[in-house]
Amino acid sequence: MKKRHMIIASVALMSATLLTPALAQKKYDPGASDTEIKIGQTMPYSGPASAYGTIGKVQAAYFKQLNEQGGINGRKINFISLDDGYSPPKTVEMVRKLVEQEEVLVLLGTLGTPSNTAIHKYVNTKKVPHMFLATGASKWNDPKGHPWTIGFNPNYNSEGRLYGQEILRTKPNAKIAVLFQNDDYGKDYYSGFKDGLGDKAKSMIVAEASYEVTDPTIDSQIVTLKGSGADTFFNITTPKFAAQAIRKVDDIGWKPTHYLNNVSASVGSVLKPAGLDKSVGLISMLYIKEGSDKRWDNDPTMNDFKALIKKYAPEVNPDDGNATYGYAVSQLMAHVLKQAGDNLTRENVMKIAASLKDHQIPMALPGVLANTAADDFALFQTMQLVRFDGSIWVPFGKPQSVR
Amino acid sequence: METFIHQVVAGIATGGVYASLALALVMIYQSTHHINFAQGEIAMFATYLAWTLINAGVPYWVAFFGTILLAFALGVLIQRIIIRPVEKAPVLNVVVVFIGLLVILNSLAGWIFTYTIKSFPSPFPKEPPFGLSFISSHELGSIGVTLVLLVMLYSFFRFTPLGLAMRAAAQNPDSSRLVGIRVGWMLALGWGLAAVLGSIAGMMIAPIVFLEPNMMSGVLLYAFAAALVGGIDSPGGAVLGGFLVGILENLLGAYVIGTELKLSVALVLIVTVLTIRPAGLFGKVIVTRV
Amino acid sequence: MTSTQSPDASGAKLPWLRISVIMAVACALPFFLSNYHVFQASMVLSTAIALVGLNILTGYSGQISLGHGAFLAIGAYTTAILMDKFDVPYWATIPVAGLVCLIAGFLFGLPALKLEGHYLALATFALAVALPQLLKFRYLEPWTGGVQGIVIMKPDPPMASFLGLTLNSDRWLYFVALLVTAIMYLVAWNLLRGRIGRALIAIRDQPTAAALMGIDTSLYKSLAFGVSALFTGVAGSLSAILVAFVAPDSFTVFLSITLMVGMVVGGLTSLPGALYGATFVQFVPNLADQISKAAPWAIYGALLIILMVVLPTGIAGGLNLLWSKVARKSGASI
């Protein structure tokens, strides 16, 4: 008697399973399960680029809070962020650990152009989503050749090109001086800038100077650039050197039209130390909200962010551009994972990331929307030109295309 | 021509930065016969201590002298606890210990104070001196401070019994003990004073380059070069070396080779100077007789 | 000195039994470890070769170098350029890299002859600092790839399996690394236990007496530089193949310092010490990161200091002391 019950029961169960719509089926790739999603990351917490470690700290805090609020679709996020000291061989080692030992589902926001170049081929061979890289190099937008890599930052090259075009439009007879960091990032910006100026690049750029990240100061370079008689200055420097440059330019009485690259456009970590009064008139581009901007005093996302920092990462300065950036990236990642629902395969996550339509990341500037397509992985098509007025960045003009 | 003068003056200003740290290196060398790779990090850490005091509302000069005392204590402590156990060890072991110290201090500073740059106040007026735009009052003031320290250091070693005792302890510890010099405390004193010099250097440098844990790493190489090129046992040589290195670096970068090969040229220069005058420009040439 | 001089100059024979056991274990290892760990093991082997090279210069010849990262870079870039621009097979680039570095090291050793102690340290330190910038120099860019570096194709194993054991890229490269390491170790051992080793030690400890005995100190010292660079160049070449990428950022000053630390921690004038040192610098930073996320390098630094106090002759020296204590206890001859 019991046996017959069991047979009927199992048949019933089987039919029920067969009849259940496929949607309820959970699909997992390594790193995903009923209870958790593993996200891997490498970040320079030590070494010359350690100032960017703030990004990882904010992201870790974000996911920690998210977990306490129930996680994503009921799953906790296991965010594993490892130090690579900005050394490519170390990045390779750590990423291999994340992929082969920790078996993460995706890699998020790995930082640095050389570090990411070192793992570019590997992650694509292993078919691990290499998502929202913390670098603006142009080569990450290559859906055909590297379908598993999708960047985040607007292209350095395109941003440089935009400044060049802006100068051509507003000051066609300008004499331009350029200061650039002697690495990938600096050269990428510079080459885009020259492209933007087109044929007139050679005649308009009257002086250029480079520096190494290991240099103590760039005062000498500024003196040289002023001496060239230039009246326009394109400043391609990272935060510490940007602060030095802004201050030195003012100290030696040079008053050029001063273009500052987005990487160093943070009021809290660059302009304040340099001197807010010395930063008046700076032109740059923004796509993420700034912590010090009074416009967002009542903005819910900004308030959430500030509360998060206070509770989980009190050593982070909310005015630090790296902090809001990190927050924006984690928001996007959370959004993508949420959309994936129970279909947590790597392929599905990439598909969702590659089909964003006019998505407004709450921490991004209003109107600066994320758009991706199967043949175009560049997230941000537009950035907003801004000018510093002594306390905040004031937008002018419409958001410009950074294709 | 104006740019040239400007470059030279800017070179003197940066050179002042190297010279001040070079003085600390000379101090530690003259009192212990070791080149302390961690000197820059000790200076940086002391500057962070000063920053903490100033941030807590302590007036600048109180914080300044408070930091000097703290730095002295820090230097003595490091010598007694960390350096003394390896005093008799071969030189490479000591170098590894210095590196360990460097890495510890750097990491601690990053952890406690984060890696974001901080501005550090200057005791000198904001307006440039005599209306010149070439050099800021702070840079001029720092050079002045370095020169004063140089004179004090030189006189201390040359004219005071304590300075003589310290030099003796470094040069010949065994004989020094025989004449009653407390060698252990001489070494500790040397470290304390070097830390003091370093902290002053740090407080002069931070307003220029901004305070962050990696602040001194770029400066250390140039200070190292300055001290050696000038003569590691000559405070005056080290300071002069600092200015020379600063000026040369600026002029080479601006006129000769461009900024893209500055370091290679610096390397060639260093090797050339040392090949011609192995003891540095003003160092004592040690002749070994068989 | 102390008892860390493994290939002592008395013409001692190779401890064949010990070596066979070690090699057998080493050959079996990749089939029991995950690919990731095999990769790490290969990196350790490559670093060990570099440390042997550094040891020849600093331990045996007494010349301090804080710039050996530069020779790692030259070796690595030689391999990368040959593979990328000239389609040279990876195994052929290794000896070429060694040769290039032999010449480079010898050339650098010539002016360095006049420098002693701290001054030599400074000159080599400056070399380490200047090289990354040189690699980024725009006129060398067509060759070096500039700041972007060069991406290399990771070699595939020539056969899919061997004696029934599957080979993949990681395992194959591990065996390549093992072979190269074994060869280099043999070369070093041979070099150091003969005339050259004795000459170097003599020059290090008693330079004037050595000169009086007719040893051409200048030649030997420059040769030491060259040979040391050769070893490090081979190591750099291997590491480039393993990581499949070279960039100026891979060869910072910190790398040179790490090499020196590895050598001292492993044990000066000790060939096995190079392996211990390489293992230390490869794994201890990772361990420190797991102990303290907040200040991992502080843990690393503290470990360094403790090691220097507790084991002043390095891990190799410490092990030797342990052995001799055990030997004495077990009633060995007086």
Structure description:
The complex is a heterotrimer of chains A (403), B (290) and C (334). Chain A has helices at 2-19, 53-68, 88-101, 113-126, 156-170, 184-197, 201-204, 219-227, 239-251, 267-274, 300-312, 321-340, 346-353; strands at residues 27-28, 36-43, 76-83, 106-108, 130-133, 149-151, 176-181, 205-211, 232-236, 257-260, 283-286, 343-344, 382-388, 393-395, 400-401. Chain A has 403 residues and is of the alpha/beta class. Chain A has 2 domains: 28-154 and 298-372, Response regulator (Rossmann fold, 3-Layer(aba) Sandwich), CATH 3.40.50; 157-286 and 385-401, Response regulator (Rossmann fold), CATH 3.40.50.2300. Chain A has a 5-stranded parallel sheet with strand order 3-2-4-5-6, sandwiched between helices. The radius of gyration of chain A is 24 Å and the shape is elongated. Chain B has 290 residues and is mostly helical. The longest helix of chain B is centred in the first third of the chain and has 31 residues, at 2-32. Chain B starts with a helix and ends in a 14-residue tail after the last helix. Chain C is 71% helix and 2% strand. Chain C contains 14 helices and 4 strands. In chain C, strand 2 and strand 3 form a beta hairpin. The chains are: A alpha/beta (403), B mainly alpha (290), C mainly alpha (334).
Name the descriptors.
heterotrimer, A: 403 residues, alpha/beta, Rossmann fold, five-stranded parallel beta sheet, C: 334 residues, mainly alpha, two-stranded antiparallel ribbon, 14 helices, 4 strands, disordered N terminus
Structure at a glance:
With 403 residues, chain A is an alpha/beta fold. Helix content of chain A is 41%, strand content 17%. Chain A contains 13 helices and 15 strands.
